[in-house]
Amino acid sequence: MSDNKNLSKDVLNAVNKKTGNTISENAVKKLANGVTADTIKNEAELRQLIKQVAAVAKVPVAESTINDIVSAVKKSGINMSNIESLMKMMMK
Description:
By secondary structure, the chain is an all-alpha fold. Helix content is 74%, strand content 0%. It is globular and about 30 Å long. It holds the Pfam family SpoVIF. This is Stage VI sporulation protein F.
């Protein structure tokens, strides 16, 4: 079983590598602190979160991509324990 800190660093490194931009750990923590289980259930809040992540990553996200992510989250019943899946989907 992997350590959460290492997993977080790995995800951050993967995002930085994929985007070619450097995202600080503090920026990610600030975003993550605002995320609750309700954020994932509320479509407006989920859309806002996706846009905030895109802004922090300095990666443009098309409205169609946002729609795809929201749809996938709804279909999968994603929750806080598997939010990493959402991050991976956004990195594609």
